[in-house]
Amino acid sequence: MVNPQRDIQKRRMKGGWPVGGRVLLCLTVSLLLPGRGDTFTINCSGFDQYGVDPAAFQAVFDRKAFRPVLNYSNPTHVNISFTLSAILEVNAQLQLLTSFLWMNVMWDNPFISWNLEECVSLKNLTVSAENVWLPDIFIVESMDVDRAPPGLTAFVNSEGRMKYDRPVRVTSICNLDIFYFPFDQQNCTFTFSSFLYTVDSMLLGMDKEVWEITDTSRNLIQTQGEWELLGITKATPKMLVGNNVYDQIMFYVAIRRRPSLYVINLLVPSGFLIAIDALSFYLPAESENRAPFKITLLLGYNVFLLMMNDLLPASGTPLISVYFALCLSLMVVSLLETIFITYLLHLATTQPPPMPRWLHSLLLYWANPRTCCPTAPQKGNKGLNLHPAHLPGVKEPVELVGKVSGPREAELNGCPESTRAKQEDEAQRQHLVDLWVQFSHMMDTLLFCLYLLFMATSVVTVIILWNT
Predict the structure, then answer these.
(1) What CA–CA distance (Å, rounded) separates 154 from 247?
(2) Please, which residues have CB within 8 angstroms of residue 356's CB and are 6 or more apart in sequence?
(3) Please, which residues have CB within 8 angstroms of residue 139's CB and are 6 or more apart in sequence?
(4) Cβ atoms of 210 and 233 closer than 8 Å
(5) C-alpha to C-alpha distance for 296 and 276, rounded to whole angstroms
(6) d(Cα 82, Cα 389) in Å, to the nearest integer?
(7) The whole model's pTM is what?
(8) Mean pLDDT value across residues 279-298
(9) What CA–CA distance (Å, rounded) separates 334 from 340?
(10) Helices (DSSP H) in 195-318: which residue ranges?
(11) What is the DSSP letter of 263?
(12) For residue 345, with 0-12 CB atoms within 10 Å meaning exposed, 13-18 middle and 19 or more buried, which class applies?
């Protein structure tokens, strides 16, 4: 029988081996030495009495620096899956998603195997992760160092199938679109790839189906706060870096914000303030309480926005910010309209200016069709010959202008012609007052209808966004 070690020593002494031949022979003979047979079967005798013998795995532990394959030209197949157990934070300003994952990595180690019959039906063993080769799988979008706890273990079965599970707190980049805040949905990605091994050395696969990962994550997710998991999909593109091609698996994680908190704390109070401001149109236009009431509402709305500013996203322009800006603009326009009407009524009762023809035609057109304003004129009135008693909050023009002396009183004074001219002048003046009063009510009508349209549009938009 030929002794390989003695033959090697003789050739070393003679110096008859080339350098490449020496290395190849050493690698070949090392597999034939005791403890490193060509079947790589671990001798597990005595495990039932004395426990696991570290010497039985020492040959495997010595190979942890190298990829465990029989033929180094063959790639290692690594299966990946994960469980999303918590959504910790979504930072819209920094565009970051912080989540907690349980990563599951599986691969085959052909240097570990044992006979179940000889090993008292021992199917699985736990091995310290520091003593075996681990694939360098990382998440491409991660913006933080790996904070996995030390001292983790890996499971290995009798056929050499390795399983390595580890918890990971991932802070990853996510392209957030907050336009529909607080009814927004985000689609973030987790791309698993190798840092060192190309497709020639490592190929990635799936240990579970995507629907299994989604169902498991929904059942085990620990956080019931602002975000909820909608679903997970995957893609398997290749990553080209220079001349190297890397295998990767990309998971698309769809999450949705729970809008109840923001609807109750932002939209409902804002809607109440706008509704109260709309009801203020029922106050008399020339009343001294209408303008201060609107100023108080405007100040209250600004205080509300300052208090709720922390709930709004710190970056971008979401739709809710546009809504708040429109509410504030409506309240400001309403206050300016109240000030203008108050000034206009005061001017009309003292020295009414002439009305332009286009405005007079507009009033004629507005007085005929049906209107939606709470201060709309009665149907019995025709044209602009309105009795002031039908206009709430406006004093009679006769009282504002002054009473006209009757014909008998004028005849007693002996000036019938001057009295008739004075009566015509007072009638024209009263007609101008009626026109300007009608114009003020038209402005109130238009602004009130604008309020109603804005509130109806806001409610319909909220219902549509909530349901979709």
Answers:
(1) 23
(2) none
(3) 168, 170, 172, 190, 191, 192
(4) yes
(5) 11
(6) 76
(7) 0.70
(8) 85
(9) 10
(10) 210-220, 260-262, 268-279, 290-307
(11) I
(12) buried
Q: Which of 187, 208, 220 is nearest to 81 (CA)?
A: 208
443 C-beta neighbours (distance < 10 Å), count: 16
Residues in contact with 133: Cβ distance below 8 Å, sequence separation at least 6, in sequence order: 63, 64, 65, 66, 67, 68, 109
The answer to whether the CB of 122 falls within 8 A of the CB of 114 is yes
Query: How many residues appear in the chain?
Result: 468
What are the tokens at 138? 């990382």
403 in Cβ contact with 422 (< 8 Å): no
Burial of 424 from C-beta contacts in 10 A (0-12 / 13-18 / 19+): exposed
Q: Are the C-beta atoms of 102 and 82 separated by less than 8 Å? A: yes
Residue 182 preceded by cis peptide, ω within 30: yes
Tokens of 452: 């109603």
Say how many C-beta atoms besides its own lie within 10 A of residue 80's C-beta: 21
- Identify whether the C-beta of residue 452 lies closer than 8 Å to the C-beta of residue 420: no
The answer to whether 304 and 425 have CB atoms below 8 angstroms apart is no
Helices (H), 264-415: 268-279, 290-307, 319-350, 357-367, 397-401, 407-413
pLDDT tens digits, one per residue of 6-52: 444 444 444 443 434 333 323 333 333 344 444 577 777 767 667 77
Can you state the angle between helices 319-350 and 290-307, rounded to 10 degrees?
160
Query: What pLDDT digit, counting tens, does each position of 352-386 carry?
Result: 666 666 665 666 666 655 444 454 443 333 333 43
- Tell me the C-alpha distance between 200 and 75, whole Å: 6
The tokens of 282 are what? 């029922």
Look at residue 213 in the predicted model and tell me its pLDDT: 92
CB 291 within 8 A of CB 342: yes
Classify strands 137-139 and 124-128 as parallel, antiparallel or unpaired: unpaired
Q: Residue 165: which residues within 8 A CB-CB, separation 6 or more? A: 102, 103, 104, 105, 152, 155
Cβ atoms 247, 199 nearer than 8 A: yes
State the DSSP H helix or E strand holding residue 49, giving kind and residue range, or none if neither. Answer: helix 47-50
Q: Do 388 and 395 meet the contact criterion of CB atoms below 8 Å apart?
A: yes
Contacts of 351 (CB under 8 A, 6+ apart): none
CA distances from 163 to 75, 121, 154 (A): 18, 19, 6
